[in-house]
Specification:
Length: about 250
């Protein structure tokens, strides 16, 4: 049996990460072995805790479950903040795969990307450049001197990575892609096959661009690039379970 503090913390975390309101039955299933009355009591304690003035969010019972919402008295400030947020980044399956190739073969040229994916990726790369997930990184010292591409700082920020060495494994990427794209991914099963990146001699045209030895991660994988983040109008942060600044029923206040 969990101690009181741990039980309470777990209830809070479960409600926080859930995209939909969490019914009591779902809490009991997740906290297997805990008594119903004890879980319900700790949930009520947690609700009371967040009602205190020092908290900007609260837990409300809606649609048969429990979910975090911001407090009505903070809505004016939150509305202004939400309007200032960047729109969520959304990627198609081809863009996801192309970004994966760039992330794990960087710096890499367009002909090399086309060869790996087996299709012309010019349009997709243009989209990734517009979304600032990819930047140019000089030219490769071969005939034609093609442009090299690498992931950007925005890429690291968007996917919560310290550096490219923290990119997930191929298996983890496949699981995340399935969750993000569902049946579309399963039907096409198009995870790009990536080999160890070659040593690239390049002239760096962009200040601060990492050399090839630093830009290429060591583990064989594809980049986490699901981009089905929640709209800022629904959540302050991109995490699925973050407190909603503007809860439904605002006009009832």
């Amino acid at each position: 049996m969990l101690n009181d503090e741990t039980l309470k913390a777990l209830i809070e975390a479960i409600i926080y990460v859930a995209q939909e309101p969490v019914p009591l039955e779902a809490l009991l299933k997740a906290l297997e072995g805990e008594e119903r009355e004890r879980v319900k009591f700790k949930l009520e304690e947690l609700i009371a805790d967040f009602q205190q003035a020092q908290h900007g969010v609260q837990i409300r019972e809606v649609a048969g479950g429990y979910k975090f919402f911001s407090k009505p008295e903070h809505h004016d400030v939150l509305r202004k903040f939400v309007k200032s947020l960047k729109p969520p980044v959304r990627l198609s399956k081809p863009a996801l795969e192309t970004l994966a190739v760039i992330a794990y073969r960087q710096p890499v040229t367009m002909p090399e990307i086309n060869e790996i994916r087996g299709v012309d990726c010019g349009g997709v790369i243009h989209t990734l450049l517009e979304k600032k997930l990819v930047v140019t990184s000089g030219r490769k010292n071969v005939v034609g001197r093609p442009i090299l591409y690498r992931t950007s700082r925005d890429f690291l920020v968007h996917f919560g990575l310290k550096d490219v060495g923290e990119l997930p494994s191929l298996k983890e990427f496949e699981e995340m892609a399935k969750q993000a794209l569902g049946s579309e991914w399963a039907a096409e099963a198009g995870t790009p096959q990536l080999e160890a990146p070659p040593v690239v001699e390049a002239e760096t045209s962009e200040a601060g661009a990492p050399p090839a030895s630093e830009a290429a991660p060591q583990n064989e994988a594809a980049a986490e690039a699901s981009a089905v983040a929640e709209s800022p109008s629904e959540s302050v942060a991109s995490d699925g379970g973050s407190p909603s600044p503007l809860p439904p029923g605002d006009d009832e206040e």
